[in-house]
Design a protein that fits this description.
mainly alpha
Length: about 230
């Protein structure tokens, strides 16, 4: 397919030569930025450290060569995701804050970074950033369409924070909402019935939420503070 040139899952010297030759022929700065970001996302998805770092290099080119306004928030978000996968947590958190600053300046361009930031904080047990994660939720929460996965992650993050603070009843209520969303088999949207469904029920995040329910609060404590 013609589109394969900016959706490569390998990054050999030949891949790079082909990609950059085609990128050079792209018409607009906006197109170039978008192609770089899409290619970076495909390399990140493969997941090897080598390809994640290659993705970071592509994302940096957007900032330095093609910094179009409508791509900045998404580019910062992808950079944060890559840094997190490499274990560079402090840098990832800082990068998400760049996303939030960008979204404040350009509120018509929004991402799901407030959820990703929250998950990064609770999954790494960064209790010192719990208040910040909740504040970002309240400020930048997307209104309108919500897929089950959005509800699951949002309420799950809030449940973990509440449970860690000893707010057992509140945590239980939030966790149950998250688990109910995770159990959905239909998105609620007629033409996209499987979009945004939860598929990570074996993840540590899911099991932590599950452990928050009243009957398992001691198990939660062991999971969050082993």
């Amino acid at each position: 397919m013609a589109n394969d040139w900016f959706r490569k899952t390998t990054w050999s010297e030949a891949d790079q030569v082909d990609f950059f030759a085609r990128l050079k022929r792209s018409r607009t700065v906006g197109n170039k930025a978008q192609y770089l970001r899409i290619q970076a996302s495909h390399l990140e998805e493969v997941g090897s450290p080598e390809l994640v770092r290659a993705a970071l290099t592509l994302l940096e080119k957007i900032f330095t060569e093609f910094p179009v306004q409508f791509e900045l928030a998404s580019t910062y978000s992808q950079k944060a995701s890559c840094l997190a996968k490499l274990g560079e947590i402090d840098q990832a958190l800082a990068c998400y804050r760049f996303v939030f600053d960008t979204e404040r300046k350009f509120p018509n361009i929004r991402t799901r970074s407030y959820i990703k930031f929250g998950r990064l904080v609770v999954e790494n047990k960064l209790t010192q950033f719990f208040d910040e994660a909740l504040a970002v939720f309240d400020e930048l929460h997307l209104n309108g369409i919500e897929f089950p996965a959005d509800v699951y992650e949002t309420f799950g993050i809030r449940a973990i924070i509440a449970a860690q603070r000893g707010e057992t009843e509140k945590a239980n209520e939030l966790a149950n909402v998250a688990l109910e969303a995770a159990a959905k088999v239909h998105s609620g949207f007629r033409y996209h019935p499987t979009a945004g469904l939860v598929r990570d029920r074996e993840s540590s995040f899911y099991k932590t939420i599950e452990a928050i329910t009243t009957n398992h609060i001691k198990r939660f404590a062991k999971r969050f503070f082993p």
